[in-house]
Amino acid sequence: MIKSVLDKDLQRVSGLEAATHDLTRTLAAPGIALVFLLAAAVWASFAMDHGPSTHIVVIGAVIAGYMAINVGANDVANNMGPAVGSRALTMVGALVIAAIFEAAGALLAGGDVVNTVARDLLISPEMESTTFVLVMMAALLASALWVNLATYIGAPVSTTHAVVGGVCGSGIASAGFAVVNWPTIGAVATSWVVSPVLGGIFAAIFLIVVQATITGRLDKITAARIWVPVFVAVMTGVFAIYLATKGLSRVWQPDIVTVLLLGVVFGVLGWLVAMPWVRRQSRHMENRKKHVAMLFRLPLIGSAALLSFAHGANDVANAIGPLAAIVTTLETGQGEAAGITLPFWVLAIGAIGIALGLALFGPRLIRTVGEQITKLNEIRAYCAALSAAITVLVASALGMPVSSTHIAVGAVFGVGFLREYASRRDMEGISVPVNARFVDPTQLNATPEEALANARKVERRLLVRRQHVYGIAAAWVVTVPASAVLAGVLYLGLDLII
């Protein structure tokens, strides 16, 4: 009896310790994020030399840091999700690589696109400096809140579209509907459809090519020794062009001939490096699809790292671009007509915030993109990553405003729907028409139980989880209007307070 009571007491203590541990883990991430935001506020106060508008810059720095955390938590899943979902990287490894390359891209080549955002989306002649500051502040806070909500519910959304919606909403609240450049908004809305469709099509095409050249061959090892270096060459060439035209646009803007030559040179170098590596790795490898797929693991990790670098270089402006506009406006006294400068301390808040956000809150979205849409292996994930880079380049060349988030998720959808189509086609190939004169009895359902088993087998051929498709698509559609409405409300509130 005494032993039984003691066991119960020990179980209660053990349960209390487990609950305390879980609560501590739950509160640790928000606590660390709060410390970062306080540090950003202190840094901003010293950077502005305690001028009369220091409090506005401090508020803007806190909001920018909050937005940077949300960019890291949501957007990084697009690059690392396929690598984690295919088991090419562990979650910890993905977070470390993404944090390093995202921060490096933001600090070394962080783009300053706030001039484009302000001048392309808002067409009013000139705003007063106070009005412009409030427009940017409301837009930044609204987009951060929306991305935070999307991350909480597990929906990968476009932070660029959230910022676009925020700027438009706060601009409308300040000067009416005429202030918005509606053709530009129409182009953004078109990208809702174009981005995922292009990403899915390219990813499916690459997967078909890999199946035709390697995994569909009888001698997969020999085919892999020939074709894997070719795919690596394509990857290195494409990413060289990608980084030259997108990721390093702030520090280097080469002409088209230089860019193409750079792509060819790095493609050849990738092929020369991959040839002996593939032969060495495949020397004792079994002639099976699962083993051949492992040859794509290292290229997949490299592509994820390069995508993270390019993402940090480009999308850090979503977090700190409006803050840079606020700082420049307060220093010069001019509104949207001012040329926006990007101080290092502003850029550092964005870089550190993105790295911190992905480390603290990124795993949930990484699992959504990598594991909960469709099953990925190294080959499918590699096709999705390569598709993302090529689609952005093609869209940029055609002048289409596309979202890297939509492209990456669309690429995952593309490989999933291709597998589903191929699986259903294989099943239809062995089916028997019901009006056939001579029917093989083995093809019919002998019992209701067998009919149920076959129905479940067909159901399992839905290799893309439909609920995630519908949920993500709905989040995409409402991102711009939701951010716009929220920004308009916040602008009106800030206008009364400040």
From TrEMBL:
It is a multi-pass membrane protein. It comes from the Bacteria. It is found in: Membrane. The chain crosses the membrane at residues 27-48, 54-76, 88-109, 129-150, 162-180, 192-214, 226-244, 256-274, 295-313, 342-361, 381-399, 469-494. InterPro entries: Phos_transporter. Keywords: Membrane, Phosphate transport, Transmembrane, Transmembrane helix, Transport. Its main location: membrane. The keyword Membrane applies. Belongs to the inorganic phosphate transporter (PiT) (TC 2.A.20) family. This is Phosphate transporter. It comes from Devosia honganensis.
